[in-house]
Amino acid sequence: MAHADPVSESLERYLEAVYILERTGGAIAARVAERLGVRAPSVSVALRRLERLGLLRTAPDRRLFLSPEGERLAELIMRRHRVLERWLVEGLGLGWARAHSEAQRMEHAVSAEVVDRLYEALGRPAACPHGNPIPGRQGLPAYAGSLTLDQVAPGAGVRVVRIAEDTEESAAGLEYLDRLGLRPGRRLRVLSRLAEDCVRFDAGHGEADLSAAMAGKVWVDPEAEGADVLQ
Q1: Taking CA atoms, which of 37, 74, 124, 197 is between 20 and 30 Å from 83?
Q2: What domain range includes position 37?
Q3: pLDDT digits (tens, 9 = 90+) for 150-190
Q4: Are 151 and 205 within one domain?
Q5: Closest CA to 95 of 172, 209, 186
Q6: Residue 194: left if φ>0, alpha if ψ -120 to 50, beta else—which one?
Q7: pLDDT tens figures, 1-56
Q8: Cα separation, 14 vs 49, whole angstroms
Q9: What letters, b where the CB count within 10 A reaches 16 and e where it falls short, cover 176-186?
Q10: Residues 156 and 218 in one domain
């Protein structure tokens, strides 16, 4: 059944969290609690509310999935959020790492009309400053990136296209990637792998090292056809 009642700001946060977690390893209640920084009982109450509204279902293995209507609402939330991020960075000159948290504070109070006007004023951007796609009236465009930095073989040149959505929650993580030059559009060359837990690369400012875990959050595209990747 289609949802008819307005969804509270609190429930919007849960919709957004499930939407992102579905695309970054799977959504379960424990991961929702961790992402939002809330206790398990509060998560259970909110998830039951979303289920009663027909916006969410729980699979037998306890994984969470949004219904078509839940996904539609989540994409509207993500559209507001990502357009606001672009405006904060490009229009106000706010730092790349702070845009996510500031947009979270604003997104629940901005109307669809204002978002649409900002979107047009910004030149109809395809993605947020972190490279993740902005949903439109036809749903969510494809995510950019054919592989993550930890999958790139030494010697290959790549271009950064986006930072994984779950990394946006950490301002410190974004600031760290920014200091290393790992922003969408930046070209770099992978130099070597240090054991299995570190990637050494050059993004134009000399050699730098990144843990394999963080490199797995940086999506890239090969700079040339036939660029090698790790098997």
Answers
A1: 37
A2: 9-66
A3: 999 999 999 999 998 888 878 888 999 988 989 899 999 99
A4: yes
A5: 172
A6: beta
A7: 444 456 788 898 899 899 988 887 789 999 999 888 889 899 999 999 999 999 99
A8: 10
A9: ebeebbbbbeb
A10: yes
